[in-house]
Amino acid sequence: MRLRRLARKRMKSVYLDELAGNEKVKGKYGQLTYSIQFDIPVAKLTVTVIEANKLHVLPEDELLDTYVTVKLASGKHGRLEQIGKVQRTDIQRRTMIPRWHFQCKFDLKMDDLKYAILIFEIFDYDSIGQDRSIGRLATHLANLDVGAYVGTPLENTEWLKAGEPKFLGLGETCIGLNYHHALERLECHVYEARCLHVMYA
């Protein structure tokens, strides 16, 4: 049997980051509480990820399985350069107020504190697909009073900003799905691609 070809109109491409209501609103993504302490004798910055609250939840989610990544970067040479390894907390499962009390240390010279930027990002763990970024926080140590965290811990609670999509791949594609009930047929239309990464052999 030959299936009748259905006429279809080309739809305008819309990506997730272009949807209405995806604005970066203060307070929309939650808060993160952390502490820092710099020890001069050993030239180390100790970072403690304490807890988060008021996290952004999708309509289909009731509880979150969250973890935090911690990066230290330096803008000393006019561009961000990562210092040390990316640290990661454990996963706090099925809670809206995750508490980690996770501690990590970074080697850092006293003179470089003014260039240092701490980058926290909270993810909702997904055992099947991609982990979802809930929110992120970039703290410039130059904006903090050095005397408040040298030799003693300084605790801060700050609002998160919109997180970056956790992306692994070579680009993005825009597709459309259309199910025809009468024909019991699902059509998939590939419209376009963007942000492609070219790999050379």
UniProtKB/TrEMBL annotation:
<dbReference type="InterPro" id="IPR035892">
    <property type="entry name" value="C2_domain_sf"/>
</dbReference>
<dbReference type="Pfam" id="PF00168">
    <property type="entry name" value="C2"/>
</dbReference>
<protein>
    <recommendedName>
        <fullName>C2 domain-containing protein</fullName>
    </recommendedName>
</protein>
<dbReference type="InterPro" id="IPR000008">
    <property type="entry name" value="C2_dom"/>
</dbReference>
<feature type="domain" description="C2">
    <location>
        <begin position="28"/>
        <end position="154"/>
    </location>
</feature>
